[in-house]
DNA sequence: ATGAAAGCGCTAACAG
DNA sequence: CTGTTAGCGCTTTCAT
């Protein structure tokens, strides 16, 4: 079988030099119309496709955005079951498409995260989007590669996309309160997750300023954890009439626990989730939720990287808006 | 700021030749212990990280698996809302991790798919996993790059991972029938989607062999389509007592439509979905469904690529198993 | 066991 | 406008 044609072959067939071939292929100026035509013909005849690796090496830029996800213990099952990550990818791909940039996906195990991160940083080109990296690791990465954007709250110098998690949580509780609920419990996310921390803060502030009681349980940002937390909450505080839940997946579990316990949503217990992920519309009833604009954030992150090195401390703020569905409608 | 150190720098600092440095870095034989130590020291001192691009160019192999997704019309919103794709990614990443292979993600617009596919094929290294490519496009890709694996039914010569969609659909209907249901409707997927076609076939065979009536509606593999199809089905055939739905996302919508119409799941209408995606456990009640082992299929596809060129027509079969949850429990 | 040298395929000065 | 010539950073013969 014939080897893949190189630009050398194209040049030979077209009867020009490699340089000329390169010029017309990259449609750079400095090539006459007749030669252009000959080169194009040769390209077509040979089915020539530039070798991106060689291009990248010589030009120093490979035009790839790296996306890093850290996997905790149990493997990366969460990538397949947690909508967050795929939303981020979905947001980035359209902006990368058409500008000849590719997306590289890295799953790094928490235990070896440090080394893995060093290697990724060393080979970064357009830069990296840190989807859920802890502040410490993010800072480490940033030290090795300035072209970095975090999508979660992180070390202060790292450029980031910032969603108003605190405000969102506050709004959620306030909304529940306005609808007349007074025993508003919360199911929070992992204690160390930066987003979860902010949402917890928002809940606490709202509870305090509205004169309510803090009734909290801890979840893990997964459905099962939401189910368990809700059941436990209901047992310990049977008078709960609303729940603010820090993630839709947990909210889906909570809805199941609540109805399994013989109560109705929203009549007995009103629910507001967080994220507005696919889970929010799959539950029954569909969830009122605080929309985290993941796609927009990811797209903006990609665009920022495309523009060049972001300023240290650069930040772009994103609103977290209330999306009303049936889990609060009654 | 200091430029990134090259192997040249390492060699100089260690006082050896580039060749020797290369040998120890790749821990190839042919370097004495004392020199190895000096090189390692130099690497550590400089924080040297090999440039993967240069490596790839010289060795001809970049160790990357390309994943291609075609986007239809409206953009790739579906990637963020449809669990299939992220499950495939989740399946591949663990097998790629640790073998120093990376994952490249490509979203190609349907209109320009042909050219895009040619370019990807030209730059493929370990090969490509075709997640949802039509047979025609898959064949085209395969013509340009033998290292290809499709995850959906496709042109006969293209190596593939084959799930028993027909058998799964058949099993689902049979299960409903065994539970005493007799008016078993179906909501199918897109007319041209190869998986949807097989599931439709399975439904038809079951209906015929069980002596039931074919009551079908068409969906789009999304929640909204499932909602609409279910509502329409219920209006036109109020005596329906069960539904086989070709995808969990549609099933989630159908559950909502059914309960919104005042009927209960599973008491009045029993439901079996397909996929066993995150949507199946977010609905209320959780869905009985036919499990498509997407993660396993994707992992096997990645492994196949890692092994070298798959045989033409290579196929690996995967079962589609019944997972019983509450939507059929009564 | 070690080093010198030849490229991988391409782009980008630099000459002509 | 066109061609010649250096490399990009690395691996890999091939001598030594």
Automatic annotation (TrEMBL), chains A, B:
Keyword 4Fe-4S: no
InterPro entries: HTH_LacI, LacI/GalR-like_sensor, Lambda_DNA-bd_dom_sf, Peripla_BP_I
Alphabetical UniProt keywords: DNA-binding, Transcription, Transcription regulation
Coiled coil (UniProt feature): none
Any Pfam family matching the protein: LacI
Record-annotated membrane-spanning stretches: none
GO molecular function, one term: transcription cis-regulatory region binding
Keyword NAD (UniProt): no
Recorded superkingdom: Bacteria
Domain HTH lacI-type: 5-59
Alphabetical list of PROSITE patterns matching this protein: HTH_LACI_1, HTH_LACI_2
SUPFAM superfamilies: lambda repressor-like DNA-binding domains, Periplasmic binding protein-like I
PANTHER family noted in UniProt: HTH-TYPE TRANSCRIPTIONAL REGULATOR GALS, LACI-RELATED TRANSCRIPTIONAL REPRESSOR
The protein's name in its UniProt record: LacI family transcriptional regulator
């Amino acid at each position: 079988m014939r080897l893949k044609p190189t630009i050398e072959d194209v040049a030979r067939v077209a009867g020009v030099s490699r340089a000329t071939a390169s010029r017309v292929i990259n449609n750079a100026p400095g090539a006459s119309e007749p030669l252009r035509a000959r080169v194009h013909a040769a390209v077509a005849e040979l089915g020539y496709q530039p070798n991106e690796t060689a291009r990248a090496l010589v030009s120093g830029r490979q035009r790839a955005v790296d996306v890093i996800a850290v996997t905790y213990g149990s493997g990366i099952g969460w990538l397949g079951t947690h909508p967050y990550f795929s939303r981020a990818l979905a947001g980035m791909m359209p902006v990368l498409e058409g500008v000849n940039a590719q997306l590289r996906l890295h799953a790094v195990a928490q235990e070896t995260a440090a080394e893995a991160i060093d290697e990724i940083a060393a080979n970064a080109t357009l830069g990296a989007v840190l989807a859920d990296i802890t502040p410490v690791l993010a800072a480490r990465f940033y030290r090795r590669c300035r072209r970095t954007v975090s999508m979660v709250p992180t070390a202060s110098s790292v450029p980031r996309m910032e969603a108003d998690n605190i405000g969102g949580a506050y709004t959620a509780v306030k909304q529940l309160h306005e609808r007349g609920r007074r025993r508003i419990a919360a199911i929070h996310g992992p204690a160390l997750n930066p987003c979860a921390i902010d949402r917890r803060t928002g809940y606490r502030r709202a509870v305090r300023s509205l004169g309510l009681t803090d009734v909290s349980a801890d979840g893990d940002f997964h459905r099962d954890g939401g189910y368990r937390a809700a059941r436990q909450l209901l047992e310990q505080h049977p008078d709960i009439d609303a729940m603010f839940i820090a993630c839709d997946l947990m909210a889906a579990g909570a809805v199941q626990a609540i109805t399994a316990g013989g109560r109705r949503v929203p009549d007995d217990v009103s629910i507001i989730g967080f994220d507005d992920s696919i889970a929010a519309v799959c539950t029954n009833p569909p969830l009122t939720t605080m929309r985290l604009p993941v796609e927009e954030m990811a797209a903006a992150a990609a665009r920022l990287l495309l523009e060049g090195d972001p300023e240290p401390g650069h930040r772009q703020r994103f609103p977290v808006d209330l999306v009303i569905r049936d889990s609060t409608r009654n």
